[in-house]
Amino acid sequence: MKKICIVGSLNTDIIMQTKKFPTRGENTVGQNAVVLSGGKGGNAATAVCRLGKEPVLISSVGMDYYGDTMLTDLTESGIDVSYIKRTPLSHTGLTTIIIDESAERTMVVAPGANMQLTAEDIADHAHEIQQCGVLLVQLEVAEEAVIQAMKLAKESGLLVIIDPAPAEGITMQAIRYADILIPNEQETKHMTGIEVNSLDDALQAAEYFQLLGIEKSIIKMGHRGALVYTPSKWQFIEAVPVDAVDTVVGDTFSGALACSLAEGNDLFQAAWFATIVSALKVTRLGPRDGIPTMAEVEAFMKARNLQQPY
Length: 310
Ligand SMILES: Nc1ncnc2c1ncn2[C@@H]1O[C@H](COP(=O)(O)OP(=O)(O)OP(=O)(O)O)[C@@H](O)[C@H]1O
Ligand SMILES: [Mg+2]
What we know:
This protein has eleven helices and 13 strands. It is α/β, with parallel strands linked by helices. It has a single domain (about 5-20, about 30-305), classed as UDP-N-acetylmuramoyl-L-alanine:D-glutamate ligase, CATH 3.40.1190.20. β6 (about 95-100) and β7 form a beta hairpin. α1 packs across α9 and α9 (about 250-260) packs antiparallel against α10 (about 265-280). It starts with a strand and ends in a 6-residue tail after the last helix. Bound molecules: adenosine-5'-triphosphate and magnesium ion (MG). Adenosine-5'-triphosphate (ATP) binds near residues 220, 239, 248 and 282. It is found in: Cytoplasm. Belongs to the carbohydrate kinase PfkB family. Ribokinase subfamily.
């Protein structure tokens, strides 16, 4: 079974709930606080593990308390941490998230050690990368590392998926080596200028990506579903209707997509699987804790009578 390589971020999330979002300069007393190990790379690797596949997670943390905790948490989740660098040059990535009464999230990310991942670090793990079937990258780590990983993966015949988050980090340099681009509505708007409100808008955006040289894309449209686009065929995959309690789901979607592609399924089959896993995820709390296991996904499919349509 081919492994899945993930070059992505590790961030400690410091989440605070407050009734009213503070105005500039104001001090407010919060209602609740929690500190969680997060980051897009770590979350996607957790999804891969829970779905029964083995991730090769390449990332970087600081030599601080948060770095120690991060590695312990990843190890407890069954993730091999031997490809994670510890750098004395910066702190472990930190995200401060403030959630107000309307459930709106306001965030500040200090990427720290994530930006210390270098092209040489990637080259040091060339052998492990070459053993994988799929490479998944996002843009929360240093661009030189992302580009080096994508180049190496392309040369070695891996399928390369890029989740262009955060959208501000995207450059043509970075997407050139991708086989499959998986933006959400905001990232699509940022990259194409197209506001995605309908299937037609999504199709227009996918055609725009094709003109840029990215033939395959999945335009994720939240609770509506996703457009899966290839030059010869496209399909809109509707989301599975569920009672959502936590819609942070992007890394679960990309992890599940990578798992299915690594098994040799085509893009439509893989996106359908990712749609099912994502629906189950949004019914559970926690960006990482809420990610379902393969057994739970199979039970959900059975209970809902969901059968592979492609
Ligand atoms: N409320 C929901 N109910 C069911 N499925 C959902 C819901 N929200 C998202 N999904 C599924 O997850 C997929 C990805 O969601 P979304 O488009 O929000 O990605 P994202 O914006 O990258 O993730 P995030 O919002 O975590 O950044 C959707 O295409 C859909 O299949
Ligand atoms: Mg979203």
